[in-house]
Design goal:
The structure is a single chain. It is built from twelve helices and eight strands. The chain is of the alpha/beta class. Strands 1, 2, 3, 4, 5 and 6 form a six-stranded mixed sheet that branches. The chain is elongated. 27% of the residues are buried.
């Protein structure tokens, strides 16, 4: 596209061309530095990207308002870095990293989160103007949440904020949507904070042994597995053949324990205590006459569940359903369930009260 630039703007454009390799080098260095810091801090971001303004883009800017700039150094967005976070509170964490990594031009840095206009949600990002080392040109880092980013793109696409008058009924709906997104942004951060508090409480309860007070869910079950509650049973089973125990994930058993009606970690703990001998009897029948020298760490919880199902009248159908939870429906489950139920039915624990 042909641009109509005066001599002053042409000089700025030439300065840009002369320094373009350095801009690209500094942009990559600043980006890498920020990325390493964010990764080291364990901050999960939706996007982290950078760009160096193209010559055509700069020429367009100069064509519109070139008299605003005395030199290229007055243009602060030749290099642009964008960080898009999932949560509001991570914006502050990233900004703290930027404070430590770069020299900040506080006069031109803008925290648009302090705006309170009803239609400001999509523009509530934090814009840092930074510099690093001896590089004489400043650059911009923009931080916003993923919802703020989506809203800003919607605004751009609809022409909202473009100077074109938007009919009042559309404007009202856009502002209502902005309010909903802002509330969602706040709630996501609040929920994450509350979940983190819940996980800390669960870990404390598990560590203290108050398992009856801990509801059975994904977080609590993971903490419970850290206590290795099935190790004693597995070691006793392994001793039958002097077998090695191969560790596998026991997370699939969470759904089985829930299906069996267990509501707390205490319920699983009582299952281990009450059905320990029954599970051992089942395991001995399974491997006692074999030369199996490796067993899975899932054998203990599997046989505990089989013992519970059989003792409580679930029979072959219950065992088949357990197998389907573990590995999905298959023709082999029926035969396997019949065999397991038949083996367990003749063991001493079935006749014990």
């Amino acid at each position: 596209m042909e641009r109509h630039l005066d001599a002053h703007c042409q000089a700025i454009l030439k300065e840009y061309r002369d320094n373009l390799p350095q801009f690209e080098k500094e942009a990559a260095e600043a980006f890498d530095k920020l990325k390493r810091t964010i990764d080291d801090a364990g901050i999960l971001v939706a996007a982290l990207e950078y760009r160096v303004k193209t010559e055509d883009s700069l020429a367009g800017k100069l064509e519109l308002k070139g008299n605003k700039y005395k030199t290229l150094a007055d243009i602060t967005d030749i290099i642009g870095i964008r960080v898009i976070t999932f949560y509001i509170d991570d914006v502050d964490k990233v900004s703290s990293a930027i404070d430590r990594l770069f020299d900040i031009d506080w006069t031109n840095t803008i925290d648009k989160r302090k705006l309170h206009e009803i239609d400001s949600f999509g523009y509530m990002s934090l814009h840092y103007i930074c510099s690093q080392g001896d590089f004489p040109y400043r650059f911009e880092i923009q931080i916003r949440t993923i919802l703020q980013h989506a809203w800003a793109n919607i605004n751009h696409d609809t022409g909202y904020k473009s100077g074109i008058e938007v009919p009042k009924n559309y404007l009202r709906n856009l502002n209502r949507l902005a309010g909903m997104l802002e509330l969602a942004d706040e709630q996501f951060s609040r929920i994450r904070s509350e979940l983190a508090d819940y996980r800390r409480r669960v870990k404390a309860l598990v560590a203290s042994g108050n398992l009856d007070d801990v509801p059975l869910d994904g977080d609590s079950y993971r903490s419970y597995l850290d206590l290795r509650p099935f190790d004693s049973l597995n070691k006793r089973i392994a001793a039958v053949n002097q077998a090695e125990i191969q560790e596998v994930s026991l997370l699939p058993y969470l759904e089985i324990f829930k299906w069996l009606g267990m509501k707390t970690l205490g319920d699983i703990s009582h299952l281990v205590q009450d059905y320990f001998d029954a599970a051992y009897q089942i395991a001995c029948h399974q491997i006692g006459l074999t030369d199996l020298d490796i067993i899975s760490s899932s054998l203990g919880p599997q046989d505990l569940c089989i013992a519970y199902i059989m003792k409580n009248g679930g029979g072959k159908a219950g065992i088949r359903h357990m197998l389907e939870i573990l590995s999905g429906p298959s023709q082999g489950n029926e035969m396997m369930a019949e065999m397991m139920a038949g083996q367990a039915a003749g063991l001493p624990f079935m006749n014990q009260k």
